[in-house]
């Protein structure tokens, strides 16, 4: 696997030797000092170029970065299925190489750069041939930190959590596994993740990031809560599914009550009680029941 130094040298050498490329900057996890380094980190690179067309005309130019294992061109695919994309302003290549390195490379015009540069606070300039990159502050993950919820946000989250569980229960009773699973993951888990993040945030004065899709939860949850969290996942067996649902309810309840106490919000005990009883009832409701 090529080293970080080799990859940076390659990325910058390509830019230095190509007159169309006038500046280079990077964003993503490699610019975040709070993210531990590992072998799977991408190189999120942006080339600021004079024009896009000549790059698109030469489909093989990206081979200079190494032997490709797989390539994705999101803008091209979006355009092919009818979505409007301005390929004269920017274009992206997601490249995974046979040695395991990955570069997410975007090329954009100078005008495009001026409109968006620095909007992602995890941005680091790497090369600027013409001094066109605006001056920005040192990279910070402040935009990715857990945001303190308003009481209305808390109410919405708890209400959605308990309300949407009746859809999950309905799907299980009907033996509609895809519906029940997707409803659980798209609504119940979404609310759970929101509450987990808020709970972690309260312990760090909301100056912490839990990572994309909660990937750092394990680092912040105490062991008993982490063990509960792992049990919120189940297989396709309905009994196991039901077990995971009730673990999810218990975890959500514990976390939400703590968040409510910390922020002086009101926890919906009545919704919790009513829906928990409803879920227990539906779990044992015969499949040929004529009424609930």
Automatic annotation (TrEMBL):
One Gene Ontology MF term: nucleotidyltransferase activity
Coiled-coil segments: none
Domain of life: Bacteria
Keywords: Nucleotidyltransferase, Transferase
One Pfam family matching this protein: Adenyl_transf
InterPro entries, A to Z: Aminoglycoside_adenylylTfrase, NT_sf
Protein name as catalogued: Aminoglycoside 6-adenylyltransferase
Organism of this sequence: Mesobacillus selenatarsenatis
